[in-house]
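Deviation from plan, reported transparently: magnesium ion complex.
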Amino acid sequence: MGIYDIFKWITVFVVLIQTQGTTHQTSASNRTTKRPVQQLSKPVALPLILSMAMLESYGLTDLIRSAAAPLLGDGWELARVITGVRDHYRVVTEQGEFGAYTTGRFLYSADDSTDLPVAGDWAVVRVVDDTSIIHDLVPRRTALMRKSAGRGSGGQIVAANVDTAFIVQGLDRDFNLRRLERYLVMAYDGGVEPMVLLSKQDLQSDREVQARVQEVESITHGAPVLSYSALDDSGVDVIESRIQPGQTFCLVGSSGVGKSTLINRLLGESLLATRAVREKDSRGRHTTARRELILLNDGGILIDTPGMRELGVWAEPSSLETAFPEIEALTQGCRYRGCGHQQEPDCAVRAAVESGDLPQARYDSYIKLAQELANHAMRSDELGRLKRKRAQKQLSKAIKQVKQRKPGF
Ligand SMILES: Nc1nc2c(ncn2[C@@H]2O[C@H](COP(=O)(O)OP(=O)(O)O)[C@@H](O)[C@H]2O)c(=O)[nH]1
Ligand SMILES: [Mg+2]
Ligand SMILES: [Zn+2]
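Because the crystal trials were delayed, the predicted structure below was used instead.
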């Protein structure tokens, strides 16, 4: 038995163990066991084989593999972006962590900043010595997007391929239902499940906390609302229980609400991982890059975001319907299709406000957001929209392929 045969059997063994641990591996198991064996026609070092579980712990799924397959050339590999600071990226591949930069061709083909890598992106990279070159991005499955700061600018991607948005709000002066609505719109628009985390419950009486949780539940329409305190640890275990291995959670919320504190608390002993990564930049200077994507000990991936003073929404107007479902339902009773719910006669939405069924503040918030989003829609770049559609199509195709292989996906 030659050395490669030994490697081959080790791989098969490792892959078998991996596939045992993951769900829905029925018809796909043939394929997942075959692929790494094929790679063994090339010399492969043992650590690389063992670390194949690494990208899975960073959230790699068959869906992403399928979507990436057409992009992977010879010598290229998949990586997840863990720091998306422009010109100073950091990625993790099956071989470990690397600083990364984009190719000129990639930059040239980018229409605007939303095409550039952000934390959570899956990228196709080539590792050269101790650095890596980003050739392309796998179409994003989901994305959290905000209006970029500054006048007349477009959208900005906060994080990509997020499963759940932890919308953190403080049970202190930060508490604000209207701001929460903005974050909910952002999550729904990006295809991300929202979960509201109300921090600092130690600052309020139990009754007050209860009342605020109920208030929030009245606008989340079923999305979970949890309260906790990082000070006395109450409620943190419930948050922990919601974090599933391989799932990506992005913390969003105003600065000062307690996002970093919560991350440190969830990290527990692996606190070190939140420390900034020291590395050399292109000129050989030592710089510190903030690490945004963090892997938890018990599995689960967290993405920290810098605090946002004010969240400018950047979403398709249709995302309002998801965030304001009760208003969407009322719309059916308006006399005119496309009713703006303002001056139009026989408006069911305004009637509900007058009868007290719909709180005035909720209505005002809806109208304000609808106007903001309509303005964006008019300004938005048609090309960008088309590209989003194209990426979406590519992704739907990949989803279909995975579904065909896996009944019950
Ligand atoms: N009383 C109380 N203070 C908290 C809690 N969580 C965070 N803080 C404090 O809030 C401040 C801001 O926290 P930080 O995590 O930096 O907020 P971030 O800007 O959202 O990352 C810090 O002084 C924390 O100690 C909490 O649950 N209760
Ligand atoms: Mg912070
Ligand atoms: Zn109306």
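The first helix runs from residue 3 to 21. We consider this an acceptable substitute for the interim report.
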